[in-house]
What does this fold into?
Amino acid sequence: MKKTDTQDGRAARKVTAKSSAAEGLRELFVDELKDIVYAERALLKALPKMAKNASEPKLAAAIEEHVAVTEGQVQRLEQIFEILGESNRGKKCDAMEGLIKEGESIMEETEEGPVRDAGIISASQKIEHYEIASYGTLAAFARTLGEDEIASLLEATLAEEKEADSILTESAYNSINFEAADEDQDQE
Ligand SMILES: [Fe+2]
Ligand SMILES: [Fe+2]
It folds into this structure.
């Protein structure tokens, strides 16, 4: 008898959740926007330090260029919050904090030069991939919610993140990584 009551209770709660599912997706969407705006602002502070630590001028230039691109991405997000009528205050993104910290320890643990450059590329690519995953999901959420203008803004940023990722891949496959490998061999 008691068991039946519990089952009924569960069923009732389920119906309530289902009726507000669309509202739930919008809430989740806004929540994740707050997460990524926090992440981008944190990156604006972290990227110049990474550029400064890079020895290869092309790598430093690529990171500096991405600082400018990131500023535009923050503005785009602020525009999105305005369209939604929501505050643009960010919400602490633990994932990005962790990725930035990881990058900082790589820089501390390596000697200046090709090995540190390879570490900077590795840390930056993890960051880019986090952003690519976030913006891909956000753009899909926006389309599902019928927010096409917002979806286009998010897709523009997604394209920039993919571009940054491929520039970093190129850097990784040109001289930088090979120089790092050579240096290790020389030490043996
Ligand atoms: Fe970004
Ligand atoms: Fe990025």
